[in-house]
Amino acid sequence: MKSINKNIKKARLGAVLSIVTYIFLTLVKITFGFLDQSDALIADGLNNFTDVIGSTALFIGLTIALIPRDDNHTYGHYRAELIAALIASFIMFAVGIQVIIQTVIKFINNDYAEPSTTSLYISIFSMIIMLIVAFINFRLANKVSSVALKAASFDNLQDGLVSLGAAIGIIGVLIGFETLDTIASFLIGILIIYTAVIIFKETATTLTDGFNSKTLKEMEEIIQNVSGVIDVVDIKGRSHGFIYFVDVTVTVNPKLNVVEGHMITERIERAMSDAFGDTETIVHIEPALFS
After folding, report:
1. What transmembrane ranges does the database entry give (predicted)?
2. 107, 139: one domain
């Protein structure tokens, strides 16, 4: 478990990077959004505020995941990061709804913003920063096998694209399309809600022991090719964030003794760890029935 804890600590660095970046961008965008009267920039700032919450929740979840196993948590606390992500998705959804409501009210009242080039420069700067953060977190997520951090990196990427959308809306106003900034604000609200739904769907699936069927099939094929295994009778899997727990039933030659059967289970466990990283595989052996 030392390798898992080491990876969790590395993943927390990615969460800290996101938190610091989002706090800075939130303050800059909301401040200049109000001063410069840019609906899109304000909405983008609120989007980053939800990301502060999401990244903080991720950090807290990763910290809880480091708690050692105990009598009440025999599988560890690794799912804490997923629970944190689930809570963050609810907050993001609420903020997205609020952004849309405010935008619709402005449409009804014909209250359109008149931003300047300052807001445009801030949006472009934000886009570049978020693309860099996305790249760093994506590489780190792959290195430490963190599903949650990889999802966060995609969120970083989307935030860069949101800033691009805000910039386009501001450009539209500057060249005479006064409604484009407000339209961009509305679309940003939609994107916030979309991200919240995606995060909710993925985390809820994992928390209810949903498991990727393609990954399970790959596991079955790897076990099937282990020396001594005649057939894979049954296989089940679940994810706890940084680690897979797999239960598999295989058939072997009924003439094997206990030691030989145990050697097969060790080969299966080693093959699974080599292919999927931190994996705990429980192997049940049954005698093959020869006709």
Report:
1. 12-32, 52-68, 80-101, 121-140, 160-177, 183-200
2. yes
Same domain, 222 and 180: no
Q: Are residues 40 and 59 in the same domain?
A: yes
pLDDT of residue 2: 60
| Helical residues (DSSP H) of the chain, grouped into ranges | 2-36, 39-65, 80-108, 117-144, 147-174, 180-207, 213-224, 258-276
Q: What is the mean pLDDT of the chain?
A: 86
Per-residue pLDDT, 291: 44
**Which whole-number Å values give the CA distances from 217 to 17, 46, 212, 221, 223, in the listed order?**
36, 41, 9, 6, 10
Q: Using one digit for the tens of pLDDT, what is the confidence trace for 10-64?
A: 889 998 999 999 999 999 999 988 888 787 788 888 888 888 888 888 898 889 9
pTM listed for this prediction: 0.74
With H, G, I as helix, E, B as strand and everything else as coil, classify residue 283.
Answer: strand
* Distance (Å, whole) CA 44 – CA 163: 7
Both structure tokens of 10: 């590395």
Q: Are strands 279-287 and 244-252 parallel, antiparallel or unpaired?
A: parallel
